[in-house]
Amino acid sequence: MNLPGLLGGLALAALPALAADVDVLTRAEDTMRRSFPAATEEEWRTRLAQDEVQALCSAHHNTPPPDIAARIVAQSREGIRYPDDGKLLGNWKEGEKLASIGTGGHIGKIQPDRPGTRRGGNCYACHTMATKEVAAGNLGPSLTGYGKRLGNTPESARFVYDKIWNAQAFAPCSHMPRFGTNGWLTPEEIAHTVAFLLDPESPVNR
Ligand code: HEC
Q: Using CA atoms in the order 108, 109, 110, 115, what is the torsion angle rounded to 10 degrees?
């Protein structure tokens, strides 16, 4: 077969798969829209519509080829901001609270947001941390004893800070929310959470 013929054949072969993908994505978005009838257009734009990185992950079923993966990592590293005082290790007691808080930012009718509700990281939904908290999920790896494993050094604090700011700066298409990039936690709050994971006094390490 000549080259144009081969390319034509490939394009034709790829078409049904592509059409199926587009159909699935359209139906998924439609289901999301119907699930959040109370969402305003602003909430749709900032919370529910996929940004470029999410769209790339969806298009590649969360396993992007190396060039796209590198692009996601590079883009996710952009715009990392640190607390004004430069301290990446905050107060572990504040971090402990933030790791448990699962309220804040709700969209919907069943449990709408209460004014003034504090947003937290809801880290326990996916991670085991301090062992006294028994209601911990396992979508993410256990972080019990994390500081002992990683060491309480400036380098590890920087890594954990950046990881919480945007998990995809290390693991493209990670299921972990991008707390800093999406403005969910402030730089100071991220530093508190870093302390909760690394401080030798924190129950995560005792
Ligand atoms: C929706 C689930 C989810 C939530 C919520 C979540 N994570 Fe994660 N996290 C993951 C997954 C999945 C991984 C493994 C993939 C990766 O490295 O990104 C991970 C990885 C990590 C790692 C790297 C662990 C290692 O192997 O070195 C750290 C640190 C971490 N999470 C901290 C946190 C903190 C702190 C919070 C709360 C502020 C949090 N996570 C909230 C899912 C979650």
A: 80
Q: Is the CB of 139 under 6 A from ligand 1?
A: yes
Q: Is the pTM of this model over 0.90?
A: no
Task: Set out the domains of the chain in order of their start, with CATH numbers.
Answer: 3-77 (no CATH), 92-205 (1.10.760.10)
Q: Which of 86, 123, 109 is nearest to 202 (CA)?
A: 123
Residue whose CA is closest, atom 5 of ligand 1? Answer: 123
> pLDDT tens digit string along 13-43?
455 556 667 788 888 888 888 888 888 888 8
C-beta 193 within 6 A of ligand 1: yes
